[in-house]
């Protein structure tokens, strides 16, 4: 297959939906020679923060001279960004070549792989082909029955913040969800966790105790001297002083501290990572669509806040940077998300709200989203996305934020960049 054929094949498999379980991915990777057993893996699960923590880790390890593969999903701007080696997206040629290999294996097994299972297999094969020293693998959904859990061992297991999301599949409490996230913990790994709700923390502790593995929790109280200036942030965490990061948002202090704790564990495990590599790597890390300032005139923020916990993080970040500024929100979400919970937290902050229909079959109708938003803020207008973005560029006195599903903010970025070019031209 060429690139277009490979992409069409993958997209068609995504349209068929998903099956939660490991039978298919195990059969698929076995047909491919079990590439998951050929590389040291850092496995990341959690509700929010997986991508940011993975980005910090990949950046620091690259600075230290390691060849680092990284798999994350979904994409924000293009499919290839899900598969990177030392920060570079997989080439279209390699994407087509590896996907052709994966499809041939899929045709040999008695199961029909989902789109995410195909992506997972592609990532593992690609990182093996590239002879990566470390592969950072991010769970898609949950952990225990997530396709990425086909790995037999892990160098390090990372648990980012756990909160309520995908409750129909994962459980109705953070303790239930923590059980699913802990399903990726292996006996031969070390575990590093964000500070968690008490019930989730107990689950993690008991799981690690039962498996005989060491677990380290970060403490938010240990993050000191938080500063924000010129779209840059700095902080102290334990022995790391004046760590500077470009990734914005109050929540990124927690993610960065978690990454630093992981680096400390890796160093104690024998990784050669200098202090300079750590500081350079933390500063150079980037992650699209997470409180991303995509424009400064007008100020335009993209954020993938798709559950109440992420919405609260977005609110706190807006309060940190733009508390006294007038705000326009453009909101598009999936119908299966807790959009009432998201709007209850965010809608009161806005002076103007545009609701749009997020793309794809899961997108919630803008009219229905508007009806919910009006409960918390009467200044709501149903709009198409292009008009909403155009309005923001015509009213630069407002700080604009587009948030909800990642597929929606990807489309928003397209229009924002169009209007930036028009204005620069």
Please, could you describe this protein's structure?
- It is globular, with a radius of gyration of 21 Å.
- With 425 residues, the protein is an alpha/beta fold.
- Helix 12 links the parallel strand 14 and strand 15.
- Strands 4-3-2-5-1-6-7-8 form an eight-stranded mixed β-sheet, with helices on both faces.
- The chain folds into two domains: 282 residues, 3-Layer(aba) Sandwich (UDP-N-acetylmuramoyl-L-alanine:D-glutamate ligase), CATH 3.40.1190.10; 133 residues, Mur ligase, C-terminal domain (Protein-Tyrosine Phosphatase, Chain A, Alpha-Beta Complex).
- Helix 4 crosses helix 5 and helix 11 runs parallel beside helix 12.
- It is built from 15 helices and 17 strands.
Structural topology:
Layout: H1 3-15, H2 23-31, E1 40-45, H3 50-63, E2 68-71, E3 83-85, E4 88-89, H4 92-106, H5 115-129, E5 134-138, E6 156-159, H6 167-170, H7 174-181, E7 191-193, H8 198-211, E8 215-217, E9 223-229, E10 232-237, E11 240-245, H9 251-268, H10 275-284, E12 292-296, E13 299-303, H11 308-322, E14 327-332, H12 339-346, E15 352-355, H13 366-373, E16 380-382, H14 385-394, E17 399-404, H15 406-424
Helix pairs in contact: 1-4, 1-5, 2-5, 3-9, 3-10, 4-5, 7-8, 11-12, 14-15
CATH-level-2 architecture of the largest domain: 3-Layer(aba) Sandwich
Report the C-alpha radius of gyration, rounded: 21 Å
CATH superfamily of the largest domain: Mur-like, catalytic domain
Identify the overall geometry. globular
Helix share, percent? 40-55%
Residue fraction in strands: 15-25%
């Amino acid at each position: 297959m060429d690139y277009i054929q490979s992409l069409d094949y993958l997209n068609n498999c995504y349209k068929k939906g998903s099956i939660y379980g490991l039978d298919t991915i195990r059969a698929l990777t076995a047909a491919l020679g079990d590439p998951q057993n050929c590389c040291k893996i850092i496995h990341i699960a959690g509700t929010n923060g997986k991508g940011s923590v993975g980005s910090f880790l990949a950046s620091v390890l690259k600075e230290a001279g390691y060849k680092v593969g990284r798999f994350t999903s979904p994409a924000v701007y293009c499919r290839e960004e899900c598969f990177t080696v030392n920060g570079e997206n997989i080439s279209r040629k390699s994407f087509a070549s590896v996907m052709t290999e994966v499809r041939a294996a899929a045709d040999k097994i008695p199961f029909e792989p989902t789109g995410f299972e195909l992506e997972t297999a592609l990532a593992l094969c690609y990182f093996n082909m590239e002879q990566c020293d470390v592969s950072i693998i991010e769970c898609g959904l949950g952990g225990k029955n997530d396709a990425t859990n086909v790995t037999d061992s892990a160098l390090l297991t990372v648990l980012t913040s756990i909160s309520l999301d995908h409750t129909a599949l994962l459980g109705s409490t953070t303790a239930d969800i923590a059980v699913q996230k802990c399903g990726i913990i292996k006996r031969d790994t070390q575990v590093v966790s964000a500070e968690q709700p008490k019930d989730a923390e107990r689950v993690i502790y008991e799981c690690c105790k039962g498996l005989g593995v060491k677990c380290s929790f970060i403490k938010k109280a240990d993050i000191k001297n938080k500063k924000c200036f010129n779209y840059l942030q700095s902080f102290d965490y334990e022995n790391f002083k004046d760590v500077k990061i470009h990734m914005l948002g109050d929540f990124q202090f927690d993610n960065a501290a978690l990454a630093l704790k992981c680096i400390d564990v890796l160093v104690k495990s024998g990784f050669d990572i200098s202090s300079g590599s750590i500081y350079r790597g933390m500063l150079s890390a980037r992650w699209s669509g997470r409180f991303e300032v995509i424009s400064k005139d007008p100020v335009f923020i993209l954020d993938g806040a798709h559950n109440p916990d992420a919405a609260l993080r977005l609110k706190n970040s807006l309060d940190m940077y733009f508390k006294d500024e007038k705000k326009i929100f453009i909101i598009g979400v999936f119908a299966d998300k807790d959009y009432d919970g998201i709007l209850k937290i965010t809608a009161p902050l806005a002076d103007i709200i545009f609701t749009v229909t997020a793309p794809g079959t899961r997108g919630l109708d803008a009219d229905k989203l508007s009806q919910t938003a009006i409960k918390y803020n009467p200044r709501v207008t149903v709009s198409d996305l292009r008009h909403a973005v155009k309005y923001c560029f015509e009213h630069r006195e407002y700080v604009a934020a587009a948030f909800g599903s990642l597929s929606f903010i990807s489309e928003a970025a397209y229009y924002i960049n169009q209007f930036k070019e028009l204005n620069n031209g």
